[in-house]
Design goal:
- 7% of the residues lie in helices and 46% in strands.
- By secondary structure, it is mainly beta.
- The chain is globular and about 50 Å long.
Length: 136
């Protein structure tokens, strides 16, 4: 009986809640090949200086070369794919991997040919992504 008042109070509170489980919206084919879904979980504002986006790339989909004005962290939560920084060999990324890309580092990431990939992307919110070259 003690929990009932607490539960009622929690239901009446005004929290900002988004769901990680939502697929999000299909991204337009502007800077990638294939099929991608994006779910903006948190957006930078006056107090929060970073964004968190859940991205799902269907099998055989890839982003073009790009860079960010802040570091970017990718947390792979499902599937397998690839990541490469300019001038370095590509690496295979899989569920559980955490990859940090330094600011202004040109890179791309993708699903694998046979597997979807879902990751959380954490990055600064002040400047848009700079797209540098179409991945061939």
């Amino acid at each position: 009986m003690v929990l009932l008042p607490i539960l009622n109070y929690a239901q009446d509170s005004d929290y900002s809640i988004t769901s990680y489980l939502d697929e999000g919206t299909k991204a337009p084919n502007t800077h990638y090949i294939g099929e991608a879904w994006l779910n903006r979980l948190l957006s930078a504002d006056g107090e929060l200086n970073y964004n968190i986006t859940k991205a799902t790339f269907k099998a055989n989909s890839t982003l073009d070369w790009h860079k960010h004005s802040s570091p970017q962290v990718l947390i792979i939560v499902e599937g397998e794919g690839y990541y490469q920084e300019r001038g370095r060999d590509p690496i295979r990324m899989k569920k559980g991997d955490v990859i940090k890309c330094n600011k202004e580092t040109e890179h791309w990431h993708s699903s694998s040919k046979d597997s979807d990939i879902t990751y959380l992307a954490l990055y600064g919110g002040t400047q848009p992504t700079t797209w540098t070259e179409v991945l061939s």
